[in-house]
Structures are given as structure tokens and as C-alpha cells.
Write a structure and sequence with these properties.
By secondary structure, this protein is mainly alpha-helical. The protein has helices at residues 2-9, 32-41, 62-65, 119-127, 136-146, 175-185, 237-251; strands at 25-28, 49-52, 82-83, 96-97. The strands form 2 sheets. The chain has a two-stranded parallel ribbon. A two-stranded antiparallel ribbon has the order 3-4. Helix 1 (2-9) packs across helix 2 (32-41), helix 2 packs parallel to helix 7 (237-251) and helix 5 (136-146) crosses helix 7 (237-251). It starts with a helix and ends with a helix.
């Protein structure tokens, strides 16, 4: 997140563009992927890049830059303060769903968490959902690129898979009790994905090609968590940044 912010300081003006200005690239949404994409495209001095973000720049707000203060951001002017509709699966409860209303989007309110996810998440994007080119070995260099790493990906064992807590064998609960507990007491950890999913296989919600272009549009791409065909095993910030990096290379014909 901080690396993106340093890059963006050089390319973002607080003065709104006038209607007679032309841009080579217009990026709607300065979230994790949008900022990474804008920063990468702006490295070309011949390109004019417009990044549109409705939220507060807030680059120096301590609640963003101090991980322990992330809870103080929720339900403030830096949060869109969304709520879900009721869901029968969780006993008709409404869930609070904070979204970052600031430059860098939800990466500004997520306590600076950075988790790539399990490599099999991305392998399944390709094998299960038909997203050719999105296997872990293919996208690992883009994780490394966004992290400023200059090592050979072949030398890195870097899935960063989050551990799973095994239930103690001596604790016996009935399936009915566990199911009721989940429906009554579980809550979301705010990682919505897949509303504009890419792929060749799957339900009607597949609206994007694997090159991130929207079906039926020549010059419109979606690069954020919504294109994920399936959620990754962990916080989605790092995969979103990776998607932004991939999108930049796609635009330049290098992916």
C-alpha cells in the first residue's frame, strides 16, 4: 500500500480535470488494483493517466498508517459503511461490510495485511474456471514485481498460504450444533469477490475474458476483486495488487 502511495503522489492532482482534456487511460476507482495499475501505466512519460477516486486522499491519516488503529476507521468518513441485505443462511441477520472510502481503497482500512493466498487458489482459477494464464507460476512474478523483489521466481517458495486451525480431536460436537453456531454467530471478514468474474466456464456471472476485458466491449477492462472467479485463501489486498500489475502488462501487450 505505501509503495503505491509514493508512486501516486507523483501522478495525482487534487485539481479535477476539465471536460476538454484527453487521456490515454481512465481508471475508475483508486483501490488496491486501481492504484497499482495507475502507478505502473504512469511510468510511461508519454501516457496521460486519469485516476478517478471518490474517497479522501488521506495519505497521512494515522488511522491508515498505524495498523492497530484500523478499527477506528470503520463507520467514519473513510468508510463507505455498507451493510448486506438479510440472508436466510445466517438467520436473517444483516452484516456490516466496511469498504475503504479513501485513496488505495480497502487497503487503507485493512491493518496493512498482505497475504498472497495459497498457490492452489490460482491454479484452480485456471484448471477449474478456465482462466488460462492465471496459474500460480504465471502470476508469481507479478506478486514479486509489486513487492519490489528482483529475485528469480523459480528460487522462491512463496505461496504464503495462511494456516488453518485444526479442531481438537477431543472436542466432539454434533453437526447440528456446529451448523447452528455458524448460522447464528458467524460474520463476514469483508472480502467480497466474483461479482464480475472472468473465465470461460461457470455460471452466468462470468462477464469478463481472461484478459480482463468485458464481453462486448473493446476497451473496457475490470481489474479488481470482482474479476476473481473464486475467493483466495486469505485477505484479498495482495491478489488485487497483483491483478493491477497483470492488467498493466496486458495493456502493454506483455502478458
Amino acid at each position: 500500500m505505501n509503495r503505491n502511495k509514493r508512486r501516486l503522489k507523483r501522478i495525482i492532482s487534487s485539481v479535477p480535470p476539465t471536460s476538454d482534456q484527453d487521456f490515454d487511460f481512465v481508471i475508475v476507482g483508486g483501490g488496491s488494483a486501481g492504484c497499482a495499475l495507475a502507478a505502473r501505466l504512469a511510468q510511461d512519460p508519454t501516457s496521460k493517466v486519469l485516476l478517478i477516486e471518490a474517497g479522501n486522499p488521506a495519505l497521512k491519516d494515522p488511522r491508515i498508517n498505524v495498523p492497530a488503529l484500523f478499527g477506528a476507521i470503520q463507520r467514519t468518513n473513510l468508510d463507505w459503511q455498507y451493510e448486506t441485505t438479510t440472508a436466510k443462511e445466517t438467520r436473517e441477520r444483516v452484516h456490516f461490510w466496511p469498504r475503504g472510502k479513501a485513496l488505495c481503497g480497502c487497503s487503507s482500512i485493512n491493518a496493512m495485511l498482505y497475504v498472497r493466498g495459497n498457490k492452489e487458489d490460482f491454479n484452480e482459477w485456471e484448471s477449474k474456471h478456465g482462466c488460462k494464464g492465471w496459474s500460480f507460476n504465471k502470476i508469481l512474478p507479478y506478486f514479486l514485481k509489486s513487492e519490489g523483489c528482483l529475485v528469480d521466481p523459480a528460487d522462491v517458495d512463496a505461496s504464503h498460504a495462511p494456516g488453518t486451525r485444526a479442531l481438537e480431536e477431543d472436542i466432539v460436537r454434533s453437526r447440528e450444533y456446529v451448523e447452528e453456531h455458524v448460522r447464528r454467530d458467524s460474520y463476514t471478514v469483508y472480502h467480497p469477490v466474483g461479482t464480475c468474474r472472468m473465465g470461460l466456464k461457470g455460471p452466468d456471472t462470468v462477464v469478463g475474458h481472461t484478459d480482463l476485458k468485458v464481453h462486448g466491449f473493446a476497451n473496457l477492462r475490470v481489474a479488481d476483486a470482482s474479476i476473481m472467479p473464486e475467493i483466495t485463501s486469505g485477505n484479498t489486498n495482495a491478489p488485487c495488487i497483483m491483478i493491477g500489475e497483470v492488467c498493466a502488462d496486458m495493456i502493454h501487450g506483455m502478458f
